[in-house]
Amino acid sequence: MSSLPEKADKYIKTVTLKDGSQAIVRQIRGGDERALLSMFASLSPETVYNRFFKLRRPFTLEEVSKMVYIKAEEEFALVASPTTPSELSIIADARYFVEDNIRAEISIVVQDKWQLKGLGTAMLNYLINIGKENGIREYFVYVLSDNAVMIHVAKKLGFTLRSQSYGISRLDLKVE
Ligand SMILES: CC(C)(COP(=O)(O)OP(=O)(O)OC[C@H]1O[C@@H](n2cnc3c(N)ncnc32)[C@H](O)[C@@H]1OP(=O)(O)O)[C@@H](O)C(=O)NCCC(=O)NCCS
Fold first, then answer.
1. Considering only Cβ atoms within 10 Å of each terminal Cβ, which end of the chain, N or C, has fewer?
2. Which residues of the chain have pLDDT under 50?
3. In 22-167, at which residue ranges do the beta strands (DSSP E only) sit?
4. What is the pTM for the complete model shown?
């Protein structure tokens, strides 16, 4: 059973980006699957590779639905939407996967046109704080070692490099 809100937006927040544009960040909800599918279909190969560590075939609606209808005790996801009319109604997805009660793995993707405007940093900061409210005390993220942007963002948020092997770096964060 999913505990996702179907209608009411939870954890809603407006974020002002570096170029002055705005995005609305909220918890993922039932009905987001087509918008999420469109976002994934719009990603550049480089962005797909940085997020999934491989050049994967396009997602199906069924696969994306599994990313929407998640169990609160296993996973939590935020999405972002533009505030002005846009081809895409979801432009970013940031989530954590609970490994045990206090530890979670983070992953994020920001659609190419919206990258480097501060959205990824803002969403991860928010995600980490929501997780903290939900009892998560330790986060980790796997990043391609040549993904300088994500490594910069993670370090800015307080993550430290824990290990590096086969071109993949792991960064860890403990929250108070
Ligand atoms: C990585 C990602 C999530 C970051 O989100 P974003 O919204 O683009 O990033 P932000 O704008 O918040 O921050 C980017 C930072 O990188 C810095 N940066 C830009 N180019 C850089 C480079 N070549 N090397 C290092 N840092 C760089 C920016 O200056 C900015 O830092 P600052 O705010 O301290 O100035 C996003 O780019 C993305 O989705 N990439 C593809 C998927 C991915 O890599 N996911 C992570 C693996 S799970």
1. C
2. 1-2
3. 22-27, 75-82, 92-100, 103-110, 138-144, 160-165
4. 0.95
Would 95 be classed as within a structural domain? yes
Cα–Cα distance, 90 to 17 (Å, whole number): 16
Amino acid at 75: E
Does any ligand 1 atom lie closer than 6 A to the CB of residue 116?
A: yes
Alpha carbon of 88 to ligand 1 centroid (Å) = 20
Q: 115 C-alpha vs ligand 1 centroid, how far in Å?
A: 7
97 occurs within a structural domain = yes
Domain residue limits at 51: 13-136
Orientation angle between helical segments 148-156 and 119-133, nearest 10 degrees:
50
| CATH code (residue 99) | 3.40.630.30
CA of 116 to the centre of ligand 1 (A): 5
Whole-number pLDDT of residue 171: 98
Distance CA 15, CA 30 (A): 22
Residue 80 CB less than 6 A away from ligand 1: no
Whose CA is closest to atom 30 on ligand 1? 116
